[in-house]
Write a structure and sequence with these properties.
- This protein is an alpha+beta fold and 101 residues long.
- The protein is built from 3 helices and 2 strands; from the N terminus they run H-E-H-H-E.
- It has a two-stranded parallel sheet with strand order 1-2.
- Helix 1 packs across helix 2.
- The chain is globular.
- The relative contact order is 0.19.
Amino acid sequence: MSQGLVAAKSRLAKKGLTIPRLELVSGQMVARLTENIRVALKGLPARNYYGWLDSTVALYWIKGKGSYKQFVSNRVADIPSKNYITWGHMGTAENAADLGS
């Protein structure tokens, strides 16, 4: 059995968004990218899909069932529909995605 990075994606941050909102946007991007990868690898033995964020607030929004303002609500509605993704927290010091920033 082997494991490895299949795809990566990045984008420039929109000005005026808080860090938790930026992390939520990245979570939505991860969910959509994972869905595309899942479709592309159909038939291959990919069993586990993981999404990692370094914002506990964004993770709470994804895992929570509260009512949120429109920006958060629109993104949160899209993410849990991909219930095959296991979401986890990764500290900023371990987050390779933060190297560029």
